[in-house]
Design brief:
InterPro entries: Glycosyltrans_GT2/GT47, Nucleotide-diphossugar_trans. The protein is an alpha/beta fold. It has helices at residues 3-31, 36-60, 89-99, 112-122, 124-129, 145-153, 174-178, 210-236, 251-255, 257-265, 287-297, 322-345, 348-351, 353-365, 368-381, 388-398, 404-409, 417-436, 448-455; strands spanning 77-82, 105-111, 134-140, 160-164, 168-169, 187-191, 193-196, 246-250, 301-304, 311-314.
Length: 467
């Protein structure tokens, strides 16, 4: 499908859907002057127009081509990795994968001099194996990803910087493909597609091992994320986040004083803090959301490079109860960041009209438990009550459409679909709690307090393995 059709859809369809949804919903539930069937179709269109268009856009996506003689090469890149524990096997494997791509520089920023020495020891063999790479191992006094990234910005002397979490794994041709979008001078930020390494299946004889099940939930979460960012980026260049697990950004933008100051000093709310001082807490999470928003606010482009070479594998980290805490953190980020995009910064209204409907507004009001229940209720009240069973089937099938690529790779996991659907409804309760506690600035899902306590201890002259 030609891209101009998506541009046309992105300009007019969102307005029609939003106006129709608002008028029919308010008219029925508040004023009572709208027919129940009209209210049903208003909510149905709001909920599923997005899905149908995204299914088409997903297959119309095209990555940036890799040129035979690219302007940017691996020697033009610095890779910065903040970490709270440089002793793990995953961390060392992560750095090894990066080294095989031969960037010009690798900067590791740990927490405390103790962990800095541990990083030096852990990477000694790789530093000897790749002497052509410019190595820098630094540290901060606090486990804070924003401060750790800010600590290394002054040491970056390449045009492109990749910010990477210390638990991801690249392929050997990652940089070759990931740099391709930067051939467009308007692209300032590049995102990747992500895949979780499926945890061991050795214990499958036990009925639904808890950690395996939650690793499945995490894998499908990223599968839906991949689907959405690939589709919305195709339509109008929008997306709800570029994952901080691996992102490429122009160094000049990252070093801009205004951008860097905001990155290091972002608060829960820059508007409401005048009236509610307790909203003045510095944000620990949302670092990737901030950078994506600022790139868009400055009029630059974001490109998702969805290729096999740019696929980032992630260590299995979705366990119980950590995954629930991660879901809570991500949901809070959605409410905070989307409100900032829509209400305080407002650039997306003109530049990304489709994403305003499909990403920013939908992301805050799309509670599966409430939306699906309301649709069934309205259809039952209408003259088409006999169609409830087809509606229920439609709802259930629509929940797994985005996961077809995942189930093609992992057909044995089809047995978990009932658990997945139940969790999708339970996730509505997590989102509701996130809405009420959006002001929480903590990095839920990780015990940073223990790392900070260690960081305050005086260095002993030998590495100490963290918990």
């Amino acid at each position: 499908m030609p891209l101009w059709i998506f541009s046309l859809l992105g300009r007019f369809v969102p307005s029609l859907v939003l106006v129709g949804f608002t008028l029919t919903t308010l008219g029925y539930f508040i004023f009572g002057d709208v027919d129940v069937s009209h209210a049903f179709w208003g909510i149905f269109a709001f909920r599923y127009t997005r899905l149908l268009v995204h299914c088409i856009a997903y297959f119309c996506y095209r990555p940036a081509p890799v040129h035979d003689h690219p302007f940017y090469q691996a020697k033009d890149c610095t890779v910065a990795i903040p970490t709270v524990d440089p002793s793990t096997k995953d961390f060392i494997e992560c750095i090894a994968c990066i080294c095989r791509n031969e960037p010009r520089s690798v900067i590791v920023v740990s927490v405390s001099k103790e962990y800095e020495m541990l990083a030096e020891a852990s990477l000694a063999q790789l530093r000897h194996q790749y002497p052509q790479i410019n190595w820098r191992i630094l540290s901060t006094e606090e486990a804070n990803k924003r401060l750790q990234i800010g600590r290394d910005v002054g040491d970056i002397d390449t045009n492109i910087t990749f910010l990477v979490d210390a638990g991801v794994f690249w392929g050997p041709n990652f940089l070759t493909s990931a740099l391709a979008p930067f051939e467009d001078i308007g692209v300032y930020l590049v995102g990747t597609n992500k895949r979780v390494r499926v945890s061991t299946r050795d214990n499958l004889e036990r009925f639904l091992p808890v950690n395996f099940l939650f690793n499945f939930f995490g894998s499908t979460y990223l599968g839906r994320h991949n689907f959405e960012i690939r589709a919305t980026n195709t339509i109008d260049g929008g997306l709800f986040a570029v994952s901080g697990r691996t992102m490429g950004i122009r160094t000049a933008f990252l070093r801009d004083e205004q951008i860097l100051h905001g990155f290091l000093n972002e608060r829960v709310s820059g508007v409401l803090e005048l009236y509610f001082p307790w909203l003045n807490e510095p944000l620990l999470p949302d670092d990737d959301n901030y950078l994506a928003r600022q790139v868009i606010n400055k009029g630059h482009k974001v490109k998702i490079q969805y290729t096999k070479d740019v696929r980032v594998e992630i260590t299995p980290q979705f366990t119980f109860p950590r995954f629930l805490q991660q879901c809570l953190r991500w949901a809070r980020s959605t409410f905070r960041s989307n409100c900032a995009s829509l209400l305080t910064e407002r650039k997306v209204w003109c530049s990304q009209p489709w994403s305003v409907y499909a990403v920013y507004i939908n992301g805050m009001v799309n509670f599966a438990l409430g939306c699906d229940g309301t649709l069934i209720y309205l259809l039952h009240k209408s003259a088409y009550a006999d169609w409830i069973l087809p509606l229920v089937l439609w709802i259930l099938v629509s929940k797994i459409v985005k996961l077809i690529p995942y189930f093609v790779r992992n057909p044995r996991d089809l047995v978990f679909i009932p658990a997945y659907i139940l969790f999708a409804y339970f996730h509505s309760l997590i989102r509701l709690w996130a809405l009420f506690t959006f002001y929480s600035a903590e990095w839920s899902g990780r015990n940073l307090a223990a790392v900070n306590a260690m960081a305050k201890q005086p260095a002993t002259g030998h590495p100490v393995v963290g918990n």
